[in-house]
Amino acid sequence: MDKRSQNKIKKINDLLVERFGVPPRNKKLPDPVEMTVGTILSQNTNDNNSYKAFQNLKKKFKIWNDVANASLNDIEKEIKVAGLGKQKAAAIKNFLNGLLEREKKISLNFIKKIDEFPAIEELTSFKGIGVKTASCVLLFSLGRNICPVDTHVFRTVNRIGIVKASDRDKTFFLLNENFPEGIAHSFHTNLIRLGREICKPKNPSCGVCPLKKICNYEEKNLDNKKSTSEKSFMLLDNI
What is the pTM of this model? Predict the structure, then answer.
């Protein structure tokens, strides 16, 4: 990422903070194993359902080793509220057993010693864990200055003109190349809020967007001056 793009990201972050404020953050970061499982559960569902599934899993199984040793059917029963039960149960079981095979314990402490992109590569080596899940673990559990790309971030950064990419993974690597220091959590969280409330897939409310003057989106809907407030983007940050 060049200096011009870095400066644009900083300006966007300032404007988003001016509109939405600095997103709150837990003083104690969640355990990276729990964050990984929670983020797997969050795929293709809403925050309430993924949180319920996570709590069901924790209530049924006392420790992660019990989950690793459980059958796929038993795991699926506990997480079915989050949808895609078979797929997510397989990803969780594979991840936990993969850690046992590699580390002889269920721990991601080894990731703490690895730089961002090698850490992404390590985490995505587990079947069922993609770039978004891996980057969420780095940002929310390890406090790394890295910006995950979900559907909202993908849409907004491409519309704004920070990057030009055809999918989320390509957007992630372009966006995080020399990302400005210290603002990834704020930038990521507020962009999701922007995407949910203002920069929606259809009929975006460009008229009330704090970024309208610096956004490159060619189909601005300046007539729409309504925004819709939605709930906080990730209960998983409170796991």
Answer: 0.88
